[in-house]
Design goal:
Blueprint (H helix, E strand, L loop, with lengths): L12 E5 L6 E2 L2 E2 L3 H15 L3 E5 L16 H11 L3 E3 L6 H8 L6 E3 L7 H4 L3 H12 L4 E4 L10 H5 L6 E3 L1 H15 L5 E5 L4 H5 L1 H8 L2 E4 L4 H7 L14 H14 L2 E3 L3 E5 L14 E4 L8 E5 L1 H12 L3 E5 L12 H12 L3 E5 L1 H9 L9 E3 L3 H7 L5 H4 L4
The structure holds adenosine-5'-diphosphate and 1,3-bisphosphoglyceric acid.
The site of adenosine-5'-diphosphate (ADP) has 20 residues, from β14 and α14.
Length: 400
């Protein structure tokens, strides 16, 4: 893979595919970690005289403009971090984008509006994605892939665009791959993996591979309820991926055969209603045994006994990989499980890797020192699929 140092960027329009998918409260960025992570690449290109065109997705809009998912706040924050004005195009490939890019002088930076406001970005149809990639390619001379959090997506800006322009990997992708590679080669044991979060259907599949690698797999977050259901327990209104129950049963059986330890919640925090994340009004959750979730309740965090159990299961690990919060950490009443796991990583002697936009944000928002962890990856699904040994579209596309 070429790096940006291999490119002649002075005077050129350089398209940087970043992952600026940051958590927002309205238009306020609650954690800017992903912007800080890619800022050095953008600063380096600008300092070398490039006209930098930054593009990203944010959230999952449905292929059409939606102001709730605008990248305008991210563009503003990027400008603050760079200490220079950053232009913002109010569309991605239309008149505003074309005029904004045409107006860039050497060393200046622009951010385009959310790539996913265009159906072509995420289309499964090669021709539709290709047509959108052609429009993006018209805005640039060179391509730098540095959105590590999205390299597992076969999307136009990640996969099709680099085939149309001379390309290189940015410094963030290079750094992420260097650390994650270590976990695929020589892993110190016991190797514990903690999985949680809300993107359950995306992430359940990686367990298939982890069963060949990990010694211990701890399950929390929204993912836990599909496991509890597979164990024959009712899960009330909790997140459930019913169609994955047979796969989970197979994982549990294979783990037993292989001597891989699956650790599931023994108790959970529940409520009849999803908490108000805006006002953070007290939610007064109840605590119930994991096999006794009432039909009208939703599991929103691991319970106190599970917190202790998970801390104990992490204590003697030599390597820990963690993706996905243990609960709805954005509300203080459901943050304790995520806090306990973060603390569990720090209390171990292990080499620790935390992956994922929300997991990394949770660590910082809950007051932990990010430098105390071995590595904080900007990608959750991306790092899991990398560890799986899969060919990631956004990395394959950067190869020569
Ligand atoms: N039990 C649960 N029910 C619903 N949502 C949950 C639950 N546990 C965690 N979450 C949510 O999961 C989200 C993060 O999931 P995900 O995007 O998969 O993680 P990451 O970005 O770290 O890869 C958080 O917004 C959190 O509120
Ligand atoms: O947040 C992201 O992934 P993550 O939650 O796995 O860390 C990336 O920005 C990818 O977003 P997507 O899962 O909507 O494609």
């Amino acid at each position: 893979m070429k790096t940006i140092d291999d490119l002649q960027v002075a005077g050129k329009r350089v398209f940087v595919r970043a992952d600026l998918n940051v958590p927002l409260d309205g238009t306020t960025i609650t954690d800017d970690g992903r912007i800080r992570a890619v800022q050095p690449t953008i600063a380096k290109l600008a300092a070398a005289g490039a006209r930098v065109v930054v593009a990203s997705h944010l959230g999952r809009p449905k292929g059409a403009p939606d102001p709730a998912f605008s990248l305008a706040p991210a563009a503003e924050r990027l400008g603050e971090l760079l200490g220079q004005d950053v232009a913002f195009a109010t569309d991605t490939v239309g008149e505003s984008a074309q005029a904004t890019v045409a107006g860039l002088a050497d060393g200046q930076v622009a951010v385009l509006e959310n790539l996913r406001f265009n159906a072509g970005e995420t289309s499964k149809d090669d021709a539709e994605r290709g047509a959108f990639a052609d429009q993006l390619a018209a805005l640039a001379d060179l391509y730098v892939g540095d959105g590590f959090g999205a390299v597992h997506r076969k999307h136009a800006s990640v996969y099709d665009l680099p085939a149309r322009l001379p390309h290189a990997a940015g410094d963030l992708i290079a750094a992420e791959v260097t650390v994650l590679k270590k976990l695929t080669e020589d892993v110190k044991r016991p190797y514990a993996v903690v999985l949680g979060g809300a993107k359950v259907s995306d992430k359940l599949g990686v367990i298939d591979h982890l069963l060949e690698k990990a010694d211990r797999i701890l399950i929390g977050g929204g993912m836990a309820y599909t496991f509890l259901k597979a164990k024959g327990h009712e899960v009330g209104k909790s997140l459930l991926q019913e169609d994955q129950v047979p796969a989970v049963l197979e994982y549990l059986a294979r783990a037993e055969q292989k001597g891989v330890e699956f650790v599931l919640p023994v108790d959970v925090m529940v409520s009849t209603d999803f908490p108000d994340l805006k006002t953070k009004a007290p939610a007064n959750p109840g605590t119930v045994a994991a096999d006794a979730i009432p039909a009208d309740q939703e599991g929103l965090d691991i319970g106190p006994k599970t917190r202790e159990l998970y801390a104990a299961k992490l204590k003697d690990a030599a390597t820990i990989f963690w993706n996905g919060p243990m609960g709805v950490f954005e509300h203080p009443d459901y943050a304790n499980g995520t806090k306990a796991v973060a603390q569990g990583l720090l209390d171990s002697e292990a080499f620790t890797v935390v992956g994922g936009g929300d997991s990394a944000a949770a660590v910082r928002l809950l007051g932990f020192d990010e430098n105390a962890f071995g590595h904080i990856s900007t990608g959750g699904g991306a790092s899991l699929e990398y560890l799986e040994g899969k060919t990631l579209p956004g990395l394959a596309a950067l190869e020569d």
